[in-house]
Design a protein that fits this description.
single chain, 321 residues, 27% helix, four-stranded mixed beta sheet
């Protein structure tokens, strides 16, 4: 049912709003598409209805009635030039659900017709099916060659040290002696430093991003940068990390301080174990707001796919407390 027609500046085109008779929802399409519509239903309802099946049957009948039509779903004998097996005469057909060309060949061992993708058949080094090839002597010979060519991989500190360039004996931060593997590539040109992922997460120093200069302050993350812009637009006077407090778990420095309200603000994306303990202890004696992910999203902040945070667009109706 037609509702209204107007110009959409985002699409830069004239659009039409109409109501679907099947799902009773308002749909928006371009006016040129609306003029060509044959049925008063939306696209999703059309594909679920019987109208789509009837139209597809009609199109298939018209295609088959044309001269020179070839049904690709029926297997046809074709001569192919493969990479390793040479010239082979087999049957091929087009598998419409899988949307790829299939090959039907006869296995010489079990003498049964087997199907596989045409791209895989062109690279086959044998004419057997998968089950027969795994039981054949040819597969056992290939497996033995692979075992002979495989290099020994040392495991643990008691293994024999391999003097090659790939492995090197090193001492982890936990005190364990292990065989370190060399990491190749442009980003990894040195040997491993830690014996396990647990030691890496425990002893590896945190990597801090480059600071962001904003109003004479060096902010440590994009989340703090977005929150500082948010405070400026609200009109609050703020100080960045002005005080440092001593707790039983170490020194704690809140991110922002608002002198007008006499409160602190902690902007946090993820917690370390010691930082959580410091925050919980400081919260008992001072007024502090935790601006985490949920709090920022409620205030209208926008989180991008790369993890960066952007300040809200509209802030007239927002207040900090």
């Amino acid at each position: 049912m037609f509702i209204k027609q107007y110009y959409d500046y985002d699409r830069k085109n004239t659009v039409t709003d109409y109501k679907c008779e099947s799902c009773d929802q308002v749909q928006t399409v371009t006016s040129s598409v609306y003029k060509r519509k044959k049925y008063p239903i939306c696209r999703s309802c059309y594909y679920k209805s019987d109208l789509k099946k009837i139209s597809s049957q009609k199109t298939s009948l018209t295609m088959k009635s044309k001269p020179g039509y070839v049904d690709k779903s029926i297997p046809i004998k074709v001569t192919l030039e493969t990479k390793y097996l040479g010239t082979q005469t087999i049957k091929t057909y087009w598998d419409k659900p899988k949307h790829r060309s299939m090959v039907v060949f006869t296995c010489p061992t079990c003498k049964q017709d087997k199907e596989t993708a045409k791209s895989k058949f062109m690279k086959k080094k044998h004419i057997h099916c998968h089950d027969c090839y795994q039981k054949s002597e040819e597969r056992q010979v290939v497996a033995q060659k692979n075992l002979q060519n495989r290099k020994p991989i040392p495991t643990g500190s008691d293994s024999v040290h391999w003097t090659g360039e790939r492995w090197k004996e090193k001492t982890c931060a936990c005190g364990m002696v292990f065989q370190a593997e060399k990491r190749y590539g442009e980003a990894h040109k040195e040997y491993a430093v830690y014996c396990s992922k647990d030691c890496m997460s425990k002893y590896q120093p945190p990597v801090h991003p480059k600071p962001i200069n904003y109003m004479g302050n060096k902010l440590k993350s994009s989340w703090e940068h977005a929150f500082a812009k948010y405070l400026v637009k609200l009109g609050y006077v703020w100080l960045y990390e002005p005080d440092r407090f001593e707790t039983p778990y170490g020194y704690y420095t809140p991110d922002f301080y608002l002198p007008e309200l006499d409160i602190y603000v902690e902007v946090k994306g993820r917690w370390r174990e010691d930082a959580k303990l410091k925050y919980d202890y400081f919260k008992k004696f001072s007024t502090i707001i935790l601006a985490d992910k949920d709090w920022l999203l409620k205030q209208g902040f926008r989180l991008q796919t790369d993890g960066k945070m952007l300040p809200p667009v509209k802030i007239n109706h927002l207040r900090l407390i």
